[in-house]
């Protein structure tokens, strides 16, 4: 591309040169008329006619050459017809044109007519100056025209004899030199402008090409990301299915008649499933946060209520590791989501305990104007400055190359960062190797007079109201149906299972269940959303329902949200399902009591 630039610049100069041939001919014909008017009274008609015919022929030749150039440009002439070829041809005609105009003093001025000669000289100078505007882009063409014009005019003055005429002749030579110098400077300036313009065009072309490559790379990256997400969602769903069934069976066995050895074995199974559930839950949290499926419920939250929950949760783990956990009480009242704030602080404290071998962990809240700064300090291993951003990446862990599961999965701080961004609570980290770490979270303060209890938000206690309830389970996996039936039976429920809504309706024979549990993805293209709609349409719109799925794909989460249904993810902890059922039945019992009262 660099090698082609000089040729493109020369081509642009020649194009500009031929683009001015129309103006060149118009100016020549107009000036020729003036010259003929000046010479008319003193010169015979033959001379006038001969000179006029010469001017016309030269201008006709220039226009013919210009026409050929345009034709060649339109059909993009091949080798041998480059810019230099056309510039040379026009320079030859310009030299001929200059000779015609330079001969005017000899042909059109009679002897002893200094006034006529002066007028003619002025016309010739004007004609040459006008040519600067059309020939400046090519000094060779202008020189071929101007040199014979001024040279022959100077020669006429010198040959006329006398001191004055000789001086005038020399002056015209000086004028010629100045004009040639001026045109050369103008030509260099125009050439520079053309070169810059062409270079800018090349840069724009290169930028477009680079943007095209970048866009193609972006599209490939997005497609790879979508493929990864689809693979992850499918693998996540398929892995959750057996884990979900395993947890149900293990819990059902533990609730039955089992000796002490069997109970210990079941506890080991549950511990393994708990570890896997932790991984899936963390991945699910990140998926839901990235999909925008986490609703923020802001309220007036006393920070002590959250701190007390932290104390009850982490006091024993900290003590078991030989650490002191200090949580300073505060009267601050925050405007935030209590559940999400608790999740952030729980992850930060758990992370501090995990990476602190001796010393203490401090959780405190300081008021700063309209903001509260909740700080989590530890005396742990610390973090190097260049890793302060990386610790918030998924699966990044410090000093755990062997990926010891007891030291976490590398998802806690990634979840913390996402939740803090969702709540619009700035999160800062200050740490150095060997000097511990300090995480600071800024939360807006609210008016203490508006304090409301969040005990129901932080801790919920609901009665056991499951005995005798008819609960139906729709799932295309036989192992899941059997596991759910075993679990629900152990809670005293009446359980009916089926593969789809049609089979369930046949089994119920018109009896409305108390609760519907449906898998999100059923056999074929069927979904639990459609199954619940079918059940409600046949047996009553008020039947409570919940969807269970191992799918974390964003589009699936949005479909569930649009349907107005609750989604619980596999592997499902039995205690969560039991709490959900108890809560739903307690709510309905309260509604009936209120209506009866």
Structure description:
The protein has helices at 5-19, 21-39, 45-75, 83-102, 104-108, 114-135, 139-160, 163-255, 260-291, 303-320, 338-354, 412-423, 455-458, 478-490, 501-508, 528-539, 554-563, 574-596; strands spanning 299-302, 324-327, 333-336, 360-368, 371-378, 427-431, 437-444, 470-474, 494-498, 515-519, 545-549, 566-569. The protein has a five-stranded mixed β-sheet with strand order 2-4-5-7-6. Strands 9-8-10-11-12 form a five-stranded parallel β-sheet, with helices on both faces. It has a two-stranded antiparallel ribbon with strand order 1-3. Residues 400-410 and 451-462 have low confidence and may be disordered. It is α/β, with parallel strands linked by helices. The protein contains 18 helices and twelve strands. The chain has three domains: 5-209; 299-458, 2-Layer Sandwich (Heat Shock Protein 90), CATH 3.30.565; 470-596, Rossmann fold (3-Layer(aba) Sandwich), CATH 3.40.50.2300.
Overall morphology: elongated
Q: How many discrete domains?
A: 3
Which oligomeric state applies?
A: single chain
Sheet with the most strands: spatial strand order: 2-4-5-7-6
Q: How many helix segments? A: 18
Please describe the structure with a list of short key phrases separated by commas or semicolons:
single chain; 597 residues; alpha/beta; Heat Shock Protein 90; Rossmann fold; 3 domains; five-stranded mixed β-sheet; five-stranded parallel β-sheet; 18 helices; 11% strand
Draw up the topology in text.
Blueprint: H1 5-19, H2 21-39, H3 45-75, H4 83-102, H5 104-108, H6 114-135, H7 139-160, H8 163-255, H9 260-291, E1 299-302, H10 303-320, E2 324-327, E3 333-336, H11 338-354, E4 360-368, E5 371-378, H12 412-423, E6 427-431, E7 437-444, H13 455-458, E8 470-474, H14 478-490, E9 494-498, H15 501-508, E10 515-519, H16 528-539, E11 545-549, H17 554-563, E12 566-569, H18 574-596
Parallel strand pairs: 2-4, 8-9, 8-10, 10-11, 11-12
Antiparallel strand pairs: 1-3, 4-5, 5-7, 6-7
Helix pairs in contact: 1-4, 1-8, 2-3, 2-6, 3-4, 4-7, 6-7, 7-8, 8-9, 8-14, 9-12, 9-17, 10-11, 11-12, 15-16
């Amino acid at each position: 591309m660099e090698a082609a630039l000089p040729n493109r610049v020369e081509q642009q100069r020649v194009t500009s040169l031929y683009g001015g041939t129309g103006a060149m001919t118009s100016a020549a014909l107009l000036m020729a008329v003036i010259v003929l008017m000046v010479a008319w009274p003193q010169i015979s008609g033959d001379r006038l006619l001969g000179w006029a015919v010469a001017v016309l022929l030269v201008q006709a030749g220039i226009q013919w050459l210009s026409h050929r150039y345009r034709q060649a440009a339109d059909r993009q002439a091949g080798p041998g017809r480059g810019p230099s070829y056309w510039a040379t041809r026009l320079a030859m005609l310009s030299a001929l044109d200059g000779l015609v105009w330079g001969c005017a003093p000899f042909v059109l001025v009679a002897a002893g007519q200094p006034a006529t000669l002066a007028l003619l000289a002025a016309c010739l100078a004007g004609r040459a100056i006008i040519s600067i505007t059309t020939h400046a882009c090519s000094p060779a063409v202008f020189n071929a025209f101007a040199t014979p014009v001024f040279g022959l005019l100077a020669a006429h003055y010198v040959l006329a004899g006398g001191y004055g005429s000789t001086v005038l002749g020399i002056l015209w030579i000086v004028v010629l030199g100045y004009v040639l110098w001026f045109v050369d400077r103008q030509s260099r300036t125009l050439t520079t402008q053309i070169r810059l313009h062409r270079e800018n065009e090349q840069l724009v072309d290169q930028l477009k090409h680079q943007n095209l490559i970048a866009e193609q790379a972006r599209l490939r990256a997005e497609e790879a990301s979508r493929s990864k997400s689809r693979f992850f969602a499918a693998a996540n769903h398929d892995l959750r299915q057996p884990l979900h069934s395993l947890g149900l069976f293990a819990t059902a066995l533990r609730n039955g008649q089992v000796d002490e050895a069997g109970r210990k074995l079941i506890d080991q199974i549950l511990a393994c499933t708990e570890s896997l559930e932790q991984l899936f839950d963390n991945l699910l949290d990140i998926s839901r946060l990235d999909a925008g499926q986490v609703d923020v419920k802001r309220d007036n939250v006393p920070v002590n209520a959250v701190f007390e929950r932290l104390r009850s949760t982490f006091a024993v783990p900290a003590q078991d590791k030989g650490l002191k956990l200090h949580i300073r009480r505060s009267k601050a009242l925050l405007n935030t989501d209590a559940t999400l704030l608790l999740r952030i602080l729980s992850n930060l404290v758990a992370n501090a305990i995990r990476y602190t071998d001796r010393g203490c962990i401090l959780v405190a809240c300081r008021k700063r104007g309209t903001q509260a700064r909740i700080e989590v300090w530890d005396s742990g291993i610390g973090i190097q400055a260049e890793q302060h951003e990386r610790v918030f990446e998924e699966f990044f862990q410090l000093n755990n190359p062997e990926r010891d599961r007891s030291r976490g999965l590398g998802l806690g701080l990634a979840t913390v960062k996402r939740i803090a961004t969702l709540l619009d609570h700035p999160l800062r980290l200050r740490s150095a190797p060997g000097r511990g770490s300090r995480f600071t979270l800024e939360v807006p303060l609210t008016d203490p007079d508006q304090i409301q209890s969040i005990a129901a938000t932080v801790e919920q206690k609901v009665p056991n109201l499951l005995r005798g309830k008819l609960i139906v389970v729709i799932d295309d996996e036989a192992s899941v149906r059997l596991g759910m039936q075993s679990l629900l039976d152990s809670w005293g429920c009446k359980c009916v299972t089926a593969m789809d809504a049609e089979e369930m309706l046949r089994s119920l024979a018109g009896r409305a269940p108390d609760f519907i549990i449906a898998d999100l993805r059923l056999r074929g293209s069927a979904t639990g959303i459609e199954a619940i709609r079918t059940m409600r349409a046949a047996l009553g719109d008020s039947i409570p329902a919940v969807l269970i799925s191992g799918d974390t794909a964003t589009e699936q989460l949005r479909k569930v949200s649009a349907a107005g249904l609750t989604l619980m993810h596999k592997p499902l902890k039995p205690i969560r399902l039991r709490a959900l059922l108890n809560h739903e039945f307690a709510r309905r019992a309260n509604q009936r009591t209120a209506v009866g009262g």
